[in-house]
Specification:
about 150 residues; 3-stranded mixed beta sheet; 6 helices
Amino acid sequence: MSRIAILALVLWVGTLGAAGYLFLNGYTAKGSDGREIVLLTPAERDQVLAEMRGLLEAVADITGALGRNDTQAVVELTKPVGMAAMAVESPALIAKLPLDFKAAGLQVHQGFDALGAAAGGGATAAALTAMLSEQLMVCTGCHASYQFSK
């Protein structure tokens, strides 16, 4: 094997290794309060926080719909925060997020789809409220574990 081929192979393996490490661990530092600080650019931080605000607004609207026993509204309110929301995520941003954060995000988006499907399938407001509570537990667990750089 030529030296160029060996060098290319070493660079290729090194690049894959670095990409794999970044995908699993994200780009983080240890925070003074014990949480992991996810290191993002200001624009990326704004994007993540805007998505979180959107999720919280959806929870508020869904809670109101459940209080009115309006399950059809729950179906509609969950659509934009389900898996469809992940279609617009930046791969570069996702690469910076730790694997557990990515898994929690996936769980939240899938959970909103499940909530919408349950509402459309005739689940009671009490059952939907319990599902929404499970969603919020994922959110609070993530907030307890992570913060974002400023």
